[in-house]
Amino acid sequence: MSGETQAKTDLSALDLQRDVGAWGRFKSSRFAFAVRHNPMSILGLLILALLIVMVLAPELFTSQSATLLNLRNKFLFPSAEHPFGTDHMGVDIFSRVVYAARTTIWVVFVVLSIATSLGFLIGSLAAYMGGRVDSILMRMTDVWMAFPSLVLAIALNAALGRGLFQTMIAVGFSWWPSYARLVRAQVLSVKNEEYVLAAQALGASHFRIVTRHIIRNGFDPIIVNITIDVGFVALATAGLSFLGLGIEPPTPEWGRMVAEGRDYLLDQWWASTFPGLALFMFVVGFNLLGELVRDWLDPSNVGRR
Questions:
Q1: Cα(first)–Cα(last) distance of the chain, in Å?
Q2: Per the domain annotation, does 7 fall within a domain?
Q3: Residue 116 is part of a domain; what is its CATH number?
Q4: What is the pTM of this model?
Q5: Are 130 and 187 in contact (CB under 8 A)?
Q6: 83 neighbors 94 (Cβ within 8 angstroms)
Q7: Looking at the domain assignment, is residue 8 inside a domain?
Q8: Per the domain annotation, does 48 fall within a domain?
Q9: Helices (H), the chain
Q10: Closest CA to 187 of 142, 226, 219
């Protein structure tokens, strides 16, 4: 009996040691270091987790329709049935805020995919080829950067017309120059490293060298830039919708909701306030998340802040 008890005790001690070891490894990791030195980043992680659930399962938050009109219920004050009240068309604002998160995430994903793809293509090609190719591509990038991104997005959106697809194209094609310059700088910093020269000596193709060796080893600043840009792209998209150039109703979108409620702001304040707060929390959350990612990938940043 005592032998069995001793065996159980040894197993429990072994499990405890394994748990302590795993926890110890986590506490000493760069991620935990970044969180300890930037506790507010936890808010960014919570907002990200909440958004993921909203996108994947919005039905968990609300059973109300985000598009069904009911004029008899217009401008209802916030209550248990309608936590954020209703808008000028009688639609539940809380439902529209929740479903607008899905719209925003989808737009941000497509916009940053377009911007990073163009930026990677132009920046890596310019840096790796050098010479006249580099000069031509960078002068083209400079001309594009001469126009503020939002102004260029407004012009492109006005030319393409209103709609979800048009908005994503307009913002995406106005956002790539910063990525082209960042990718070019990263490629230039590693293109003469020994592992790149070794790959060239072995006869690897230019495409393989750029994708497998250069970009992979200079990707960290680009990840940080993408994380921070999520909030700015959401603001740009909301700005276009606020001006009447972006996403059209009945698709829920925070900027459009703020614009629709501004005429009633003094009496029915909730129509604009809650969508605006949702957009504010989205931007703040991803800015905090960007700082966390920056400190995680490069802990030396912590000492400089």
A1: 60
A2: no
A3: 1.10.3720.10
A4: 0.82
A5: no
A6: yes
A7: no
A8: yes
A9: 2-27, 30-36, 41-56, 93-129, 131-145, 149-160, 164-190, 194-201, 206-208, 220-242, 254-261, 270-297, 300-304
A10: 219
What does the block give as tokens for 286?
Answer: 């991803």
Instruction: Write the pLDDT tens digit of every residue in 255-266.
Output: 999 999 998 988
72: amino acid identity, one letter = R
How many residues are given for the chain?
A: 305
Residues 6+ apart with CB under 8 A from 102: 54, 55, 58
Task: Give the number of other Cβ atoms within 10 Å of residue 240's Cβ.
Answer: 27
When computed from its CA atoms, the radius of gyration of the chain, rounded to whole angstroms, is 25
CA distance 126 to 182: 12
Question: Is 188 inside any structural domain?
Answer: yes
Residue 305 has which token pair? 């802040």
Q: Is 305 helix (H, G, I), strand (E, B) or coil?
A: coil
Confidence at residue 293, expressed as pLDDT on a 0 to 100 scale:
80
Range of the domain at 140: 37-304
Indicate the number of domains in the chain.
Answer: 1
pLDDT tens, residue by residue, 147-204: 888 899 999 999 998 899 999 999 999 999 999 999 898 888 877 777 777 877 887 7
**Residue 300 in tokens:** 């030396």
- Give ∠ CA 114-119-120 in degrees, rounded to 5: 105
